[in-house]
Amino acid sequence: MSDDSLDATSCEVCYSQESLWICLVCGHVGCGRYSGCGSSVLHNEATGHNFAMELSTQRVWDYKG
C-alpha cells in the first residue's frame, strides 16, 4: 500500500525536486528560473499569473512588480 503523504513534491513538467515554486493563483508547481526546466517562469509568461511562492523558503515573488 502506498502512502501519498510520503511522496515528494516535484515540478509538474520535468519532475525535478529542486528550487520549486507554486503559483498562488492556480497551484501549478514548477522549477525556479535557474534550475530544472524553469517552468514556473514559463507558466507566468503563458498565463499571466503573477504571484508565486518558493516552497523551501515561503518567499513570495511578484513577476509583474
What does this entry show, briefly?
By secondary structure, this protein is of the alpha+beta class. 14% of the residues lie in helices and 22% in strands.
If you had to describe this structure to a student in words, what would you say it looks like?
The protein is built from one helix and four strands, in the order ββαββ. With 65 residues, the chain is of the alpha+beta class.
Layout of helices and strands:
Blueprint: E1 20-23, E2 29-31, H1 39-47, E3 51-54, E4 60-62
Antiparallel strand pairs: 1-2, 1-3, 3-4
First and last CA, distance: 46 Å
Summed over residues and divided by their number, the pLDDT gives a mean of 90
Helix/strand structural class: alpha+beta
* Strand segment tally: 4
Poorly predicted spans = none
Order of helices and strands: EEHEE
- Tell me the β content: 15-25%
Largest sheet: 4 strands, antiparallel
Helix fraction, binned, reads: 10-25%
- By DSSP (H or I, 4+ residues per run), the number of helices equals 1
Strand line-up in the sheet with most strands: 2-1-3-4
Given the C-alpha coordinates, what overall shape results?
globular
* Rounded radius of gyration (Å): 12 Å
What structural keywords apply?
globular; 65 residues; alpha+beta; 14% helix; 1 helix
